[in-house]
Each structure stands twice: as C-alpha cells, then as structure tokens.
Amino acid sequence: KFEVAANLTGTIILDFSLGAGTDFVFQIGSALTTASSSAVNVINGSSLSGVYWQVGSSATLGASTAFRGNILAVASITLVTDASMFGADLRTAVSLLKSRDHVNARD
Questions:
Q1: Can you point out the beta strands (E) in the chain?
Q2: CA 11, CA 19: separation in Å to the nearest integer?
Q3: Is pLDDT larger for residue 75 or for residue 36?
C-alpha cells in the first residue's frame, strides 16, 4: 500500500506459483507513474490472473513500458508512446488517453 504516489523505475516480477486464489493488489493513494521501458511481468499465471492496481487519481505508463494487470483509476490512465498494457483499464472519470500505444484485454 502506498499512501501517496508510486513510481516504477525498472522491472517487477509477480509470481503466481503459490497457487489458486493468489492476488496481487496494489493500492496507491494518488498517482501511479512508470519510467520509460519499465515492466510488470507475470509468471506462472496471466495478466488477468489477479493483478490489480487501485489508483486514487491517475496512472501514467511511460514510453515503451510493458505493463500487466488491471488498472482501476479514479481520473485517467495515460499510455505514452509505445507503452503496452495487458489487462483491463477501468476509470471512474476521464477517458483513456493514448499516444501510439497498445492496449490488450488478454495476454
């Protein structure tokens, strides 16, 4: 749990080898931002297996980021040039903003 903002500046690997019912839930008080070429990788499962990013305001995926999981953001989700998202994008306010990116509902 992040009380305010969270920044991803490299690669994070989420391992589902613990079996069924495993979830990764990241609660972020305000903003989620990834640096260019960051990655969220899932092993022993899929992007939709149970990876949730609950964001209090906005999520911004930096250029060339490869992001896996479901983002639930209050305001917006922005994918910068060549960012890829594998999972669901859910907003309660502003629409998804794209700039030459890729959004996939499945792996």
A1: 6-8, 11-15, 24-28, 32-34, 39-43, 51-55, 58-61, 66-68, 70-73, 76-79, 84-86, 89-91, 97-98, 102-104
A2: 22
A3: 36
pLDDT tens-digit map of 43-96: 887 756 689 999 999 999 999 999 999 999 988 888 998 998 888 777 665 445
CB neighbour class for 45 (10 Å; exposed up to 12, middle 13-18, buried from 19): buried
pTM recorded for the entire structure: 0.80
E strand or H helix that includes residue 58: strand 58-61
Amino acid 8 reads L
82: closest CA among 98, 59, 105, 71? Answer: 98
Specify the higher pLDDT residue, 104 or 12: 12
List the structure tokens of 67.
Answer: 């992001």
